[in-house]
Amino acid sequence: MRIARVSVPDLDGPVFGVINGQQIGLLKGHPFGELEPAGVALDLDDVKILSPVLPSKVVCVGKNYADHAKEMGGEVPAEPVIFIKPNTTVIGEGEPIVCPPQSENVHHEAELAIVISHLCKNVSVERAGEVILGYTIANDVTARDIQHRDGQWTRAKSFDTFCPLGPWIETELDPSNLDISCEVNGEVRQSGNTHDMVRGAHEMVAFISSVMTLLPGDVILTGTPAGVGPIVHGDEVVVTIEGIGALANPVVLR
Length: 254
Fold this sequence. Notes:
Elements: E1 2-7, E2 15-20, E3 23-27, E4 37-43, E5 48-49, E6 58-62, H1 66-71, E7 81-85, E8 90-91, E9 97-99, E10 106-108, E11 110-116, E12 132-139, E13 142-143, H2 144-150, H3 154-157, E14 163-170, E15 179-184, E16 187-193, H4 201-209, E17 219-221, E18 229-230, E19 236-241, E20 245-253
Parallel strand pairs: 6-17, 8-14, 9-20
Antiparallel strand pairs: 1-2, 1-5, 1-14, 2-3, 3-4, 6-7, 10-13, 10-18, 11-12, 11-17, 12-14, 15-16, 15-19, 19-20
């Protein structure tokens, strides 16, 4: 099942819906519990698809693919390295990634994203699936030069628009063996598979929930394969994940 968050003409505020072919059946309230249809179906062309959630936090896992850790001049850490992107980084399908004037080297990072369904803390690996609503596509945009200058990742990862998400949440997906790629202006930059993750999706939910409470709608980014590289004004970045679809965003200079 695909759950989207959309803007509908003549309705105040975003609404959630379930996609069925070229239509979306709107829901009452949110999808973090029993789904309640609103009895309204619209053509997808008549709505604007937004980021699938606006999370309280985006928790990211660094160096979770060995080939990416190597290209960044390091090794996979003994324990997961996590960091947080603020929710003001989140944008949806088709919205522009804005390169800030402080950086001259902004990079794309294609990632599988986990969407949390329930408030949870200290979840075991075995029960992690019970608190996962589904999966979506993410681009962990990074100001690489600032990352290197600062010696840590917060500022480089936290500029507004630096976390495209979408276009929807796929609830019926095995995250362990999915092709993942990133194209810039039609050129393939990243091509990998989630089976190459050092630590899988359920393991990441367990580890992160041992550190902090996760809330419904929170998002976990699971790391990126090798091939990250620069994006500049005028580019179009498309991240594709098998079983979910594609997330496309233009790049502009602020």
